[in-house]
Amino acid sequence: MITPEARKTILNKALEIAKTLQKVTLIAYYQDIADYIEDDELFKENNGVKKIIVMKEDEYEENGEIVEQIEKIGQIIKVPSIIFNRVNKIKIALMMCTSSGILSKEDDVIALSGTSSGVDTLMFIDISKEKELLSFKGDIDLEKSVKPEVFERVLRVALELANQGREGKSVGAIFVLGDKEKVLENIKQMIFNPFKGYSPDERNILKANLDDTLKEYSLLDGAIVIDCNGVVETAGAYISVSASVEDLPKGLGARHIAAASITAVTNAVSIVVSESTGDVTIFRNGSIITRIEKVS
Fold first, then answer.
1. Are 228 and 176 in contact (CB under 8 A)?
2. Where are the transmembrane segments (predicted)?
């Protein structure tokens, strides 16, 4: 059993390594380090360590005073209020930070993770060389494809779909984000476009509450296409391109192959929810960036 003293030692060591190496970012989940946030020795405002504290959305909404305190010592990023295992917590934090430009390919990271009992895991990550948690083929900057807030919103929807399903059933889905013109050239509409006739503002996931709408239309066969600014272009779209995606792992189904293929011939990003496993896979440049496994 890991004692509170042992957990504090892990946290101390992480800060010690970060101070020694410099230019290293410390990432930790609030739920893992909540007992130590008020420790002045550990979390001084100016101790030379760049800190990113990850909070679940419900934690952020329910802890106003804590949020103010954390903002004095580091940067907060929000993730969906879903249960993740140790590794997935790190994957999601890295994905959110790289998609928004908070972290770059040149950054080194000390990532802390743990269970509901607290921090118990420390990982040192060189993003430029990382292949297990996060793998970029080419440019890491997703902002060139899609606005960070659009990517984060759709990823949240995908993760919620993967964990909760729809109407009590597991669902699969493809979301294609960005590079609208080229994407539309490589799809065929399978059904009447349910978003046709609505204004861009009414179709914008950042301006209208379309989370449930996206989840509902994920039940349709085909992809949901969203432009770089968050405007939903269509749903029920068949991806008609077949590109060479030789470096994908064996055993992926047609949905994943289609999602990879569209990103191989466009500058889009695809997010896929697997109906059979509940895993969420993110593609760019015809390759998998990361896969977030559903917690069983």
1. no
2. none
**Mean pLDDT to the nearest integer, 97-113:** 90
The answer to whether the CB of 233 falls within 8 A of the CB of 217 is: no
Rounded Cα distance, 100 and 95, in Å? 9
Give the distance, in angstroms, between the CA of residue 149 and the centroid of all CA atoms in the same chain: 11
Mean pLDDT across 188-211: 92
DSSP per-residue letters across 77-93:
EEE-S----HHHHHHHH
What CATH number should be reported for the domain holding residue 243?
A: 3.40.1700.10
For residue 196, pLDDT over 90 is answered with yes
CB contact at 8 A, 92 and 84: yes
In a domain? residue 134: no
**What is the C-alpha to C-alpha distance for residues 29 and 197, in angstroms, rounded to an integer?**
43
Same domain, 157 and 43: no
Q: What is the pLDDT of residue 254?
A: 86
Q: Tell whether 216 and 91 lie within a shared domain.
A: no
Q: Which of 61, 151, 19, 43 is nearest to 97 (CA)?
A: 151
Strand-pairing partners, residue 24, are 108
DSSP three-state, residue 114? strand
Find the domain containing 208 and state its range: 142-292
